[in-house]
Amino acid sequence: MTQQPFFDPWPEPEELEPDQPEYDIPWMPPRHVVGVTVPLDVAIFTGPDVVVRATRARAFSRGLEIEVEAWVRPGATRPVDDVAHVWEQQEPRFGVRLADGTRLGHRPPHGPPDEDAGPSTLAQTGGQGDALRSSRSWWLHPFPDGDGLELVVRWDHLGVPESAAALPLAPLREAATREHVLWDPPPPPGEDGLGWFAYAPMSGAAYGSSLAITWDDDEGEDAGESSDEEE
Fold this sequence. Notes:
This protein has helices at 86-89, 170-176, 196-199, and strands at residues 33-34, 36-46, 50-60, 63-72, 93-97, 103-104, 121-129, 133-141, 148-155, 160-168, 180-181, 206-208, 211-213, 224-226. With 231 residues, it is mainly beta. The chain has one domain (22-78, 85-231). Strands 2-3-4-8-7-12 form a 6-stranded antiparallel sheet. The chain has a 4-stranded antiparallel sheet with strand order 6-5-9-10. It is globular, with a radius of gyration of 21 Å.
């Protein structure tokens, strides 16, 4: 008696979408470089129910990735009361003030551009956590000038007023000189004619002071601008 196989055969695979090309996007951390991790211990806000601190940075020659963590005392959490504005209530707002006074992250996503500011951008690169502890990372590009900058938070939903703390840049700038470039970067977007949408950050994920890109292809003669900032 022939025994039937235990497992059913694999189904025929569906036709796969072609792989998307890889790009080197300036307002995201480089994927061909190992940045230097620098522990931070910067208290941005400390209250009886909420604590917000910058806990580490990864330094690159072209920018900084800053990790900000928030802790909430058990029993102090509040349910989100407006689904339409859940992003406003479930985590603190975060921004930076550069040495020249430029504010990044001070405007809500999709806000009007700040015509007086420079080309710096602040983009959220990741996040995880729950109601009692969360962690968010932010990419600041390019590496800022000056001796330091201010980290700014505000969380109206949990009673955190606008609060700021200084972040010295000298040790981070030194760390950036020790980055390890693994190999040549992928090409920048726009060279193959994919245009602005291949280059732009995800909606609501980046807050730029004033970003202009000039294309080499025919369709990209006009500069694209992106300036979604948080208040």
